[in-house]
Records
---
Amino acid sequence: MADNNTLDRNETQDMISSAKVEGTAVYGRDGEKIGSIHHLMLGKRDGKVRHAVVSYGGFLGMGEDYFPLPWNELSYDEERSGYVVQRDADQLRGGPHYARDHEPVWDRAYEAQVTGYYA
Amino acid sequence: MADNNTLDRNETQDMISSAKVEGTAVYGRDGEKIGSIHHLMLGKRDGKVRHAVVSYGGFLGMGEDYFPLPWNELSYDEERSGYVVQRDADQLRGGPHYARDHEPVWDRAYEAQVTGYYA
């Protein structure tokens, strides 16, 4: 992890800014770019990131799909300046996802669906 | 909490989108607007929100100060469409803060300073 002299102003050894996480690229195990993190879903009571929602596909913001991933699927790769997920691209694209304006109700059933797929 | 028929697309009974949290107004105990949430600081390993960084003051983005608050200081108030902190404005303004481009190193010492102030 970077030492204090090279720390990005939005990072520290221990913490990272949500503004920096949003928009960060996400790569699959084979190095292919999956998409980028669009936003995070946070548990209201415990303030814990339940899912990182990765946006994928589309053109100029149109036609994008959104793929929720459990937070612990992501590992930051300094060389790529992005997150790596230890999954193949096909496996990721087969995961739960939704189109813009078709957001699911984020209830326990949906959360279990996401967690179950990546278990 | 809102039922499924009135759920905002970025919310659910259990979770909230980081994109929605960012920019939300923050009010003190007396109803005075403190500022708005600029971004969140997340623990990298556990993905837990350590601080909500509230921006306050300034004009057109200039001269703003940033005040980290522990996540558990915030309660969402449906009527105000914003977060309420059970502190007086003076107490909040006396808390740890920094100016734009003078971000602290987010190490354990700084985190302890923030947590200690709001203990």
---
Amino acid sequence: MPIPRLIDTTRLEAALQAFADARDWNRFHTPKNLALALTGEVGELVEIFQWLGEDESRRVMDNPATAQAVRDEVADVLMYLVRLSSVLGIDLDAAVADKLAANARKYPAPPSPPSVSPPAVG
Amino acid sequence: MPIPRLIDTTRLEAALQAFADARDWNRFHTPKNLALALTGEVGELVEIFQWLGEDESRRVMDNPATAQAVRDEVADVLMYLVRLSSVLGIDLDAAVADKLAANARKYPAPPSPPSVSPPAVG
Amino acid sequence: MPIPRLIDTTRLEAALQAFADARDWNRFHTPKNLALALTGEVGELVEIFQWLGEDESRRVMDNPATAQAVRDEVADVLMYLVRLSSVLGIDLDAAVADKLAANARKYPAPPSPPSVSPPAVG
Amino acid sequence: MPIPRLIDTTRLEAALQAFADARDWNRFHTPKNLALALTGEVGELVEIFQWLGEDESRRVMDNPATAQAVRDEVADVLMYLVRLSSVLGIDLDAAVADKLAANARKYPAPPSPPSVSPPAVG
């Protein structure tokens, strides 16, 4: 039985490949260029939060203008990340499963707290 | 009939939520903190390429050491991006579908080239 | 009478040039590579703050370990920025003077508040 | 005799302080906010290079439009870096001198090549 995927980017990878093919843009999609583009989009994303306090930034999705900006920039970052992985032949699902497992070993969860209900007496 | 998802992050979001819950780390996962963490990981990713030429960077996955580094950092960037989206309640699939459509309108693909077979003469 | 410089990076530029010359590293210092390196260092700088609250981050220089980390990363970011400017032949002082002036026009300071002492009556 | 400064940011720090004072913006200039703003500007800077080849990016200052964009973004990055250092009380000149010295120890320059003229015989 196959292990369920943590993430499935198959269709997005295909859509991005088709987008680049249709415009003859593959030649621009070198790993270094995609790394720079990813950085540019991360800059646009974090900028939305730069003058907001912690409370205001939690409410950024309540304001239609900032909500749309966040959605757009998150999408842009994701697309460049998926495109870079695709160009390099990286299996994102496997990469993320491995890293999550490594993180769990590096930062083990503390043991479960005792149950709330006290033990029976007698 | 439902439109197929471009991307499915359901299980990854759940895994990241469980990871944070088990360690009582949700309190650290504010939007601004996640934006800073995302930036840190993007830095670690692009650093791998900083002294490589274009050709060398295309071959980065041929060297086991750099290949693993790239996989790890791509995974880290993805996890913080998905976690940020999750904390803000963003539907990543909808966001990416919208942005891809907007990009297609902003950068229309040129018309298809004429067919290879030349027109009939006479 | 010459306008005083806002910033003088002359000696730092010379030191960075000599450092690269002595190691035959100029060939790595292309604008794109320096842009990637700058990004990597910014990532290392912002990471220091990623799990700190606003108050804790104001006190980051009180802890010798984090203080040294911040100094090191700020220095790294500065060195790559100055190196990039140097390689591109940018006069940083002129660039900053121009941008500060443009910002002052874009965001004019409000007029001075009225003096504290109330106007004389009668 | 004082050691000459590698970098002098005194007037720029004062100008940025005055700019913030005049607009009552100091309250926005927390370390985390400035880290996010710095990231945003680095994004705008590296974006200029993202679709350029190595040769094109070396010539970016030959085109008046891209030259001005690079100058503006380099200035923005510098201003946020200097402002962050200022807010944290960091002596940028000392920080850079220390890091340059540490780098020289970590990456010692190879010994000088033999002098061109051969040693005297006998």
